[in-house]
Design a protein that fits this description.
single chain; Tetracycline Repressor, domain 2; 0% strand; elongated
């Protein structure tokens, strides 16, 4: 069962994902959709801007949960592809949100506090550890050799992965998701060898 705060955030998330300009949504409308009184909104948020900022923090936490959820595959390729699929899930959802941010002039987007960049950095650090563990699987299996990585290889791999996934999410390349994951894996494997 959702808490009152989660109900409010869910309403805002649905508006954001539908591309609705939040400037045009009143607090009364948000309260009615969350099935609460307007005064209850103020028990959880100091302003509309605070509510919007908290919504993005909430989504970031959800994305972190997806990205860091347990990997079921116990082999190198399976674990790598499973993690790429998690990233794709988040990227597809986040694209809708980013489009909404870019199409809105709401001042709350300019007032994000420093917790958001810190949270994003923390997620990136977790992803670095996750992929280090996946690469270790490749070494244990004998698919990869344990050796000193080439200079900047991490940056090159990140560029290849993020570039291909970004193009897929933005419908710049026509390929099935399964074929995309295979393509990403093949290129990363080549870079690691």
């Amino acid at each position: 069962m959702q808490s009152t705060k989660e109900k409010i955030l869910s309403v805002l998330i649905s508006y954001i994902k539908d591309g609705v300009n939040l400037d045009n949504i009143s607090l009364s409308t948000i309260a009615a959709e969350a099935e609460i009184g307007k005064s209850t909104l103020y028990e959880h948020f100091s302003s509309k801007e605070d509510m919007i900022c908290e919504t993005y923090k909430y989504l970031l936490s959800q994305y972190e949960s997806i990205l860091t959820s347990d990997i079921e595959s116990m082999d190198f390729k399976g674990a790598f592809i499973e993690q790429i699929q998690k990233i794709l899930t988040v990227m597809k959802d986040a694209k809708v949100l980013m489009d909404a941010i870019m199409n809105s002039h709401h001042e709350a987007f300019m007032k994000f506090d420093q917790s958001i960049p810190h949270h994003m950095k923390h997620i990136q650090e977790q992803m670095d550890k996750r992929f280090a563990g996946i690469i270790y699987l490749g070494i244990v299996e004998g698919t990869l050799e344990q050796k000193e990585p080439k200079p900047y290889i991490k940056n090159v791999i990140q560029a290849v992965v993020s570039g291909l996934l970004y193009q897929y999410v933005n419908k710049e390349i026509e390929i099935s998701e399964d074929d995309l994951c295979e393509l990403v894996f093949a290129h990363v494997l080549q870079l690691l060898k």
